[in-house]
Amino acid sequence: MPNLSVAAPTVPIEGREQPFPVRRIFCVGRNYAEHAREMGGAPDREPPFFFAKPADAVVAATAEIAIPPRTANLHHEIELVVALGSGGRNIPRDAAIETVFGYAVGNDLTRRDLQAEAKAAGRPWDMAKGFDYSAIISPIRPAAEVGHPANARIWLSVNGELRQEGDIADMIWPVADIIAELSTYVELKAGDLIYTGTPAGVGRIVAGDLVEGGVDGIGTIANRFV
Ligand code: MN
């Protein structure tokens, strides 16, 4: 018999002993106009869309991370992450924010070369987005303590050089809209994480890089790649 005791992935909650159990990881594509343009899209005509990563893709904000296999173009995407404390189906927009337990900052690591191949061939993005250790996340800050931020600077630097900078106020679809829309596709539940999209300036990470980022008032990440 194989050993069937598999530990559920968790994320620390700032100031609490009990961690946040991760159920599913959803991600929003193209939620900042400038990033949609840099990826060759037209933000006015293309509503954001969703993809997923496995729950055990989560990796700590201070972890040393090996450059993943099968890519020559690993990219960073700094994002506000929403952690759900409840859920539902077809959640009304004006009730959506009540499902949020807290917020974190994440880096939606992407094998950009595999993503480009998948796009060109009309194939799924799973191997471009949902690989091991592809969902960097900071400790979660409960909304009971930080509220529901509508504006906050979001930024990422590589070896001290600023690469991405924006404001979460510039999201095409704000958090409540994302939750409401996503809940029309799937039933959301406590433990779900939603990566809400990245501002412009995505770029390559190579071995040796120190990738730091944050959302002001929410948290920071600092990962060395090897
Ligand atoms: Mn992303």
Condensed summary:
The protein is of the alpha+beta class and 226 residues long. Helices cover 16% and strands 32% of the residues. The termini are far apart.
Could you walk me through the main structural features you see in this protein, from its secondary elements to its overall organization?
By secondary structure, the protein is α+β, with helices and mostly antiparallel strands. The chain has one domain (10-224): Fumarylacetoacetate hydrolase, domain 2, CATH 3.90.850. It contains six helices and 17 strands. Strands 3, 4, 5, 7, 8, 10, 11 and 14 form an eight-stranded mixed sheet that branches. A hairpin with an 8-residue loop joins strand 1 (10-11) and strand 2 (20-21). The radius of gyration is 17 Å and the shape is globular. The model has no long low-confidence stretch (mean pLDDT 95). The structure holds manganese (II) ion. Residues 27, 77, 79, 108, 195, 197-198 line the site of manganese (II) ion.
